[in-house]
Amino acid sequence: MPQMSPLMWFSLFILFSFVLILFNQMNFFSFKPLIIKSAEKGEIEKKNLIWKW
């Protein structure tokens, strides 16, 4: 079984790191939370918090 050179391992690491970052960015920006959808409609509910110290 041939061994990989250190430069080959480094390029493989860069490739997998790039794919991981790209995958995480796509998942993060494709999700739209519900509070933003309600903010566009102007239906944000405000909760009055009564603090008892």
TrEMBL record:
One function term, GO molecular function aspect: proton transmembrane transporter activity
GO cellular component, one term: proton-transporting ATP synthase complex
Domain of life: Eukaryota
Topological relation to the membrane, as annotated: Single-pass membrane protein
UniProt main location, coarse: mitochondrion
Record-annotated membrane-spanning stretches: 6-23
One GO biological process term: proton motive force-driven ATP synthesis
Keywords: CF(0), Hydrogen ion transport, Ion transport, Membrane, Mitochondrion, Transmembrane, Transmembrane helix, Transport
Localization per record: Mitochondrion membrane
Record note on quaternary structure: F-type ATPases have 2 components, CF(1) - the catalytic core - and CF(0) - the membrane proton channel.
Entry's family note: Belongs to the ATPase protein 8 family.
Protein's name according to its UniProt entry: ATP synthase complex subunit 8
